[in-house]
Amino acid sequence: MIVTMCVPGQVVWTDQFSTLLSYQDRRIIDDERLSIERPFTKDWNLHIRKVKHSDQGTYHCQLNTVPVKAKTVNLRVEVPAKIIEHLSTQDVTVQENDQVTLVCNVTGVPTPDVTWYRHVSGQRGVEKQKVGVNGEVLVIHNVTRYCGDIYECVAFNGVPPAVNHLIKVEVQFAPEIYLHNKRIGQDEGKETILECTVTAFPHAQAVWTRNGNEIRTLSQKYRLEIYDEDRHTITLSLRMFSIERHDFGTYTCIASNKLGEDSESMILYEYSAHIPTTTTTTPITTTTTTSLLSRNTDASVLRPPYLEPDTPNSIFPRVEGRGHNSKPINTYRPITYPDPRILQQSGEGGSNGKVLQSNMGSGGVSGVASLHCSSIFSVVILCACVLL
C-alpha cells in the first residue's frame, strides 16, 4: 500500500522505532515487501505489500535540509476476525440439570462481535435460531434433554470475511417409557402387537417381560422388533402369534441405561370375555344382542384387537408405515367402530341400517329407546319414558 509522499531532495523513511527503511529510492532493510515508488518527480512513496498487523504504527518521511523537514503518517491496520480453535470449546457431553459453558475465543482488529446461534434439529424450515447475548461465552443453566443441539458462534468485526465455529452439545438422561395403551384385548388364536416407546441417551437396553421373565425370540411364538423414531427414541414391538389362554395377563416394558431405569405395564385380556351382553324382554319375544355384526354377516370374521380405556371401541388393522419420523413398517393405526352393543338390522334406512327398538312390559312402564348411527359414527341417544 502507498503510505505517503515527500518533496524532492535526499529523502529517508523511518518507522516508529527510528529504523531506517530507505534512502532516496533504495530500500535499506531486508524486507522485500517494502519499496519506494515515484510516480512523479516530487513523489517518494513508501509502498508496503501484504500488510501485517505488526506493520501498524507511525512512519516518518524526512528531507535532509537545514532545518530538517519531516512528515508523519500513522498507519492503522485492521485485521479480520479469527477464531482460536484450541482455546474454544469443542464438542461436549453433559448430564441433564448440569450447567454447560461454551467458549468461542476470537481475535481481530477492531475487536469482533460474537453472536451465538442454535441449529434446531427436527424443525423443518428453521435453519438456525439466535440464542443468548453477544459475547465470547455462552452459559446454559439447568440443561435439559431439549438443549442438546449444535451451537454456532459467528465472529465479525466489519472486515470480511466473518468466521464461525460449531459446537455439538449432547445431553445424557435416564430412560422414559411411554405406552400408547395400558389395556388391549384380543381373541384366542389371533395375532397382536404390544408396543412401548423408549426415550433415552445413551440409548437404553429395552426388554419385554412377563411374570418377571424376559421374553426372548427363541421360539416361533414371539417376534421382537426395534424401530428408530428419532435420534434418542425407539419403539420396542412385541408381536405375538396365535394367542393362547395362558398368554393373557400383564406385560411389562423395562428400559435402562447408566443413568437409571424406567418401566411401564400393560394388560392383554381376552376380548370375547369382555363383550357386554344385553337381554331385552318384550311381551312376545326375548332378544339377546352380543354381536358386532349384522344378522347377515358371518360371526366368525377375524376380530381385531380391542383397546381400552384410552381408545374405547377402537381397532388396529395392519397398515404400511409408522410415524412421520421413522422407517416404513407394518404397524397399527386406530379406526373407530360402532359400539358392539348395537345390533344392525337389514331393511330400509340406507347404509346406516335400522336400530333395535324394545318395549319394557313389566312395572307398568312403557319406554322406547332409539339409537341412530351416522356415517361418521357419531351417536345420538333419544329416550322417552311414559307412565301408563
Give a quick precis of the structure:
This is Ig-like domain-containing protein. This protein has strands at 11-14, 20-23, 26-27, 34-37, 45-48, 57-63, 69-75, 79-83, 92-95, 100-103, 106-109, 113-119, 129-131, 137-140, 149-156, 163-178, 183-186, 192-201, 205-210, 213-214, 222-230, 233-240, 249-257, 260-270, 278-281, 286-289, 306-308, 314-315, 318-320, 330-332, 335-336, 344-345, 354-355, 365-373, 379-387. A hairpin with a 6-residue loop joins strand 15 and strand 16 (163-178).
Account of the protein in words:
Helix content is 0%, strand content 49%. The protein is mainly beta and 388 residues long. Among the domains are: 11-75, Sandwich (Immunoglobulin-like); 80-174, Immunoglobulins (Immunoglobulin-like, Sandwich), CATH 2.60.40; 179-272, Immunoglobulins (Immunoglobulin-like, Sandwich), CATH 2.60.40.10. The protein is rod-shaped.
CATH architecture of the domain at 80-174: Sandwich
Q: What is the radius of gyration?
A: 41 Å
Enter the CATH topology name of the domain at 80-174. Immunoglobulin-like
Based on CA inertia axes, which overall geometry fits? Answer: rod-shaped
Q: CATH homologous superfamily name of the domain at 80-174? A: Immunoglobulins
Outline the low-pLDDT stretches: 1-6, 284-303, 309-388
Helix content: under 10%
CATH class of the domain at 80-174: Mainly Beta
Report the total helices: 0
| Alpha-beta content class | mainly beta
Which percent range describes the beta-strand content? over 45%
First and last CA, distance: 114 Å
Whole-number mean pLDDT: 76
What's the count of strands? 35
Keywords: Disulfide bond, Immunoglobulin domain, Repeat, Signal
Domain Ig-like: 80-164, 175-269
Region (Disordered): 312-337
Protein name: Ig-like domain-containing protein
